[in-house]
Amino acid sequence: MQNSTYGNLTFSTVKPGEALAKAKNMKPVDIIAAMSDSGMKGRGGAGFPTSIKWNLAAAAKGDEKFVVCNADEGEPGTFKDRVILTDYPELVFEGMTIAAMAIGAKVGIVYLRGEYAYLTKQLEDLLAKCREENLLGKNVLGKQGFDFDIEIRMGSGAYVCGEETALIESLEGQRGEPRNRPPFPVDTGFMGRPTIVNNVETLAWASCIIAKGPEWFNAIGTEKSKGPKLFSISGDCEKPGVYELPMGITIAELLAEVGGANAKAVQIGGASGQCVPKTQFDRQIAFEDIATGGSVIVFGPERDMLTVAHNFMEFFVEESCGQCTPCREGNAKLLEGVNMLREGKCSMSYLKELCALGETMQLASKCGLGQSSPNAFLSIVSNFEQEMMGRTN
Amino acid sequence: MLITERQRMVQDIESWAGQFGNDRSSLMPILQNVQKKYSRISEFSMQAIADRLEIHPVEVYGVVSFYSFLKDEVHGKFVIRLCQTITCDMAGKDRVAKQLENDLGVSFGETTTDGMFTLEYANCLGMCDQGPAMLVNDQVFTCVTPEKVHDIIQGCRQSLTAFAGLRKES
Question: Could you tell me if the ipTM is greater than 0.85?
Answer without folding.
Answer: yes
